[in-house]
């Protein structure tokens, strides 16, 4: 059975082309494909300003980290961004150890991440 | 108060001290003397059996704390067994649970003793089908064991990551016809060892060695295998890979962070 991950997607007020994605559960090799499909679909639809809320993301492995880097790269290629907020200490440590903290835009909370989108407009 | 002692039949290094009745301030001196006799006989591990204790006064609790300190100074310990619910609650309110470990029975106390003082390791062997879907339950199970054994939340998370990456690697890069992956966990108070065995085609197994030896790291590594193994290398203390015709064996050792 695949590990449960749920993505709750909602609009971002006053941010055209923006979406907030709440990640809930574990992001691992069993569910990267479905996660990749959902987020890639959003980016293809033109929602390239994305804030990912990790408050309820308990776990991420190297495969999961790989698609986060992919989202960041793809959004940037379309003049957008993929920002992450509310990362728990354990997940942050994995991101940091692998050196992905220099490649991902990480914020303490969703409000700061959204504010950074508004200043770039 | 009535107090009697006997050498444990389970392990002669352990003394069982049976307490009965109310433990009052007036009992402190006699208790202290008994503890000193035990220490003088070079026995430093005491299981205090308190199923028949009805009351523990604050001065007596203080005396017990002092006795425990004398044991700890000698490299020993004292644990408490068999408290009734009300007394246990009262002792917790007095903060005694910060000083003493409470156990429901002597068997659990002996387990604690072996875990803490005899460096005995516990081994768990798991066989899983070579499917990625089987990994999450195994990684969470093993991380749960580490947590239960007193490893920190951070250590447990790292252990979960190690199991996940190595098992995924064995499945993704193993021989597609392999019937199973074998995972063996060996855990003691100071370290965690993971042994993952699987059947791998020789060229893929050699690739694994190359990835490990290349010291590749960081997120720029486009190849997931490189990134996962780099991560394991960075959060563990050692990785050994052995390859022969029967398959590939990856052994990871991780020291407990507060050991």
Q: How many DSSP-defined strands of chain B?
A: 10
CATH architecture field of chain A: 2-Layer Sandwich
Give the number of domains of chain B.
2
What is the terminal-to-terminal distance of chain B? 39 Å
Strand order of the largest sheet of chain A: 1-2-3-4-5
Gyration radius from CA atoms of chain B, angstroms: 25 Å
Query: So how many helices of chain A?
Result: 4
CATH superfamily of chain A: STAS domain
Mean pLDDT of chain A: 93
CATH topology of the largest domain in chain B: Heat Shock Protein 90
Helix content of chain A: 40-55%
Residue stretches of chain A low in confidence (pLDDT < 50, at least 5 long) are: none
How would you sum up the global shape of chain A?
globular
Mean pLDDT of chain B: 89
The CATH homologous superfamily of the largest domain in chain B is named Histidine kinase-like ATPase, C-terminal domain
CATH class of chain A: Alpha Beta
Alpha-carbon distance between the termini of chain A? Answer: 43 Å
Q: Per DSSP, what share of the residues of chain B sits in E-state strands of 2 or more residues?
A: 25-35%
Largest interface: A-B, 24 and 24 residues
Largest sheet of chain A: 5 strands, mixed
The structure class of chain B reads alpha/beta
């Amino acid at each position: 059975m695949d590990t449960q991950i749920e993505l709750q997607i909602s609009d971002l007020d006053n941010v055209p082309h923006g979406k907030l994605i709440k990640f809930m559960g574990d992001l691992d090799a069993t569910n990267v494909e479905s996660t990749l499909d959902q987020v890639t679909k959003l980016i293809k639809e033109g929602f390239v300003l994305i804030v990912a809320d990790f408050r309820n993301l308990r776990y991420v492995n190297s495969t999961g980290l790989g698609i986060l880097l992919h989202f960041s790269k793809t959004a940037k290629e379309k003049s957008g961004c993929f920002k992450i907020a509310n990362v728990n200490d354990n997940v942050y440590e994995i991101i940091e150890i692998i050196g992905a903290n220099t490649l991902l835009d990480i914020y303490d909370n969703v409000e700061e991440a959204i504010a950074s989108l508004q200043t770039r407009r | 108060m009535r107090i009697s002692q006997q050498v444990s039949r389970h392990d002669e290094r352990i003394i069982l001290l049976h307490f009965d009745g109310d433990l009052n301030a007036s009992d402190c001196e006699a208790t202290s003397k008994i503890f000193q006799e035990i220490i003088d006989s070079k026995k430093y591990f005491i299981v205090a059996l308190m199923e028949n204790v009805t009351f523990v006064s604050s001065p007596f609790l203080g005396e017990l704390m002092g006795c425990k300190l004398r044991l700890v100074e000698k490299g020993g310990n004292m644990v408490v067994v068999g408290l009734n619910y009300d007394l246990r609650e009262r002792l917790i309110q007095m903060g005694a649970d910060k000083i003493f470990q409470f156990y429901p029975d002597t068997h659990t106390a002996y387990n604690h003793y072996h875990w803490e003082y005899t460096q005995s390791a516990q081994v768990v062997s798991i066989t899983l089908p070579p499917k990625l879907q089987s990994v999450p339950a195994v990684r969470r199970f093993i991380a749960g064991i580490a947590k239960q054994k007193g490893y920190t939340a951070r250590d447990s998370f790292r252990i979960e990551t190690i199991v996940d990456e190595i098992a995924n690697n064995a499945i993704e890069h193993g021989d597609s016809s392999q019937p199973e992956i074998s995972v063996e966990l060996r855990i003691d108070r100071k370290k965690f060892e993971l042994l993952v065995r699987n059947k791998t085609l020789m060229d893929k197994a050699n690739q694994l060695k190359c990835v490990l030896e290349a010291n590749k790291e960081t997120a720029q590594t486009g190849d997931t295998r490189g990134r996962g193994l780099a991560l394991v290398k960075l959060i563990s203390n050692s990785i050994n890979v052995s390859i022969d015709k029967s398959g590939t064996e990856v052994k990871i050792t991780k020291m407990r962070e507060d050991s």
